[in-house]
């Protein structure tokens, strides 16, 4: 599979975000799991899902999706949905048109920026496992898909046969669109816990199973918003977000551990500052400095677990994990022919301010 294929699954994953804002009523569904899970009650389950899917597009535009080469690998990029149109079809399935932009790192291309969009029909359903909801999105038809490369940081010798895969070339874009359809065909699973925390899995995740995550949450009453691993190579970074703080008396608790590189920088910035910063990162080879003074700017060294609670006013924020010399306080050492990538495990929790 070509390096571009890692980015393509993001479009389908974006659809799964529709249930992030629908907490009401989930606990009551756990009381009668036999009735809810009955194969003959598909109509009932779809009526229940409609309360969450009605907010699909609003929720989709408030999240981003980590990208990885294989399901078990750390993320090496991210996709940001920016447009969405959804409607229920006469057969009860959901038709969604959505698009956005993103970036992904591979050893062949280094950082690659792209735009992508798709129009997909999904058969949606769910099952209950106690108080946990397993929501399934099975692809039924993909009627359109587009993929446009905007940046290839390292372009040397990137060809398929004798055809170059230059950014924006017709061959690269057509091939990317076909690979995107292949990834979307796998479908997705959203695992939604009773407290509102969410996990994602490609394909069908069987009821009772969980994707592997790096961070085990304590019983603190906080809502776990993110629980991922990301690989940050030299002169690269990851923009995790948007992360929503819903009330003025809340705080984000960040838990981070790194391996591989000696240290990285952790920054917290507002959405208004982060989004143009992300756009520059997906279109310009050289990473740029923060456009505004970060709300948090801390180095994190390898070898221990770093934890910090930050009280914030209501709003949307980005957690930036940086391995460059133009942001944060750390100046990564450059080694010839040796990319000291940082493997970063992070958890983001939302709770009451201290």
Total number of distinct structural domains: 2
In one word, what is the shape? Answer: globular
Mean of residue pLDDT values = 79
Number of helical elements = 7
What assembly state would you assign to the polypeptide chains in this entry? single chain
Which consecutive residue ranges, at least 5 long each, have pLDDT under 50? 1-32
Find the structural class using helix and strand composition: alpha+beta
Q: What integer value in Å does the Rg equal?
A: 20 Å
- Helical proportion? 10-25%
Q: Would you report the number of β strands? A: 17
Between the first and last Cα atoms, what is the distance in angstroms? 48 Å
Biggest sheet: strand arrangement: 1-2-3-4-5-8-9
Q: Main β-sheet, in a few words? A: 7 strands, antiparallel
State which percent range the strand residues make up.
Answer: 35-45%
Order of helices and strands: HHHHHEEEEEEEHEEEEEEHEEEE
Model description:
It is a single chain. The chain is of the alpha+beta class. It has 7 helices and 17 strands. The protein has 2 domains: 5-202; 223-352, GOLD domain (Jelly Rolls). It has helices at 5-15, 26-29, 33-37, 42-53, 56-60, 170-184, 271-283, and strands spanning 65-67, 77-88, 94-106, 110-129, 132-152, 159-160, 163-164, 188-192, 198-202, 223-232, 236-245, 250-259, 263-270, 296-301, 306-312, 315-323, 342-352. The longest helix has 15 residues, at 170-184. The model is unreliable at 1-32 (pLDDT under 50).
């Amino acid at each position: 599979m070509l390096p571009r294929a890692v980015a393509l699954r993001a479009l389908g994953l974006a659809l799964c975000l529709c249930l992030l804002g629908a907490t009401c009523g989930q606990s009551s569904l756990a009381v009668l799991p036999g009735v809810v899970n009955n194969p003959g009650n598909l109509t009932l389950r779809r009526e229940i899902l409609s309360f969450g899917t009605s907010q699909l597009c609003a929720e989709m535009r408030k999240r981003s999706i980590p990208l990885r080469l294989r399901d078990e690998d750390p993320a090496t990029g991210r996709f940001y949905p920016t447009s969405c149109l959804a409607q229920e079809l006469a057969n009860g399935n959901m038709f969604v048109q959505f698009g956005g932009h993103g970036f992904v790192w591979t050893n062949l291309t280094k950082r690659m920026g792209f735009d992508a969009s798709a129009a997909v029909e999904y058969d949606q359903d769910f099952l209950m496992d106690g108080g946990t909801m397993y929501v399934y999105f099975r692809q039924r038809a993909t009627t359109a898909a587009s993929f446009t490369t905007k940046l290839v940081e390292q372009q040397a010798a990137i060809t398929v046969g004798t055809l170059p895969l230059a950014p924006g070339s017709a061959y690269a874009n057509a091939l990317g669109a076909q690979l995107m359809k292949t990834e979307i065909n796998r479908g997705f699973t959203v695992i939604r816990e009773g407290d509102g925390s969410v996990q994602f899995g490609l394909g069908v995740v069987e009821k009772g199973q969980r994707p592997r995550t790096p961070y085990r949450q304590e019983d603190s009453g906080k809502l776990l918003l993110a629980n991922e691993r990301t690989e940050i190579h030299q002169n690269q970074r990851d923009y995790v977000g948007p992360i929503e703080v819903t009330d003025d008396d809340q705080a984000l608790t960040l838990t981070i551990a790194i391996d591989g590189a000696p240290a990285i920088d952790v920054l917290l910035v507002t959405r208004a500052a982060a989004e143009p910063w992300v756009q520059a990162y997906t279109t310009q080879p050289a990473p740029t400095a923060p456009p505004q003074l970060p709300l948090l700017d801390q180095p994190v060294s390898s070898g221990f677990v770093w934890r910090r609670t930050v009280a914030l006013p209501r709003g949307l924020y980005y957690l930036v994990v940086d391995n460059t010399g133009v942001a944060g306080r750390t100046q990564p050492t450059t080694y010839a022919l040796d990319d000291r990538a940082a493997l970063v495990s992070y958890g983001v929790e939302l709770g009451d301010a201290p």
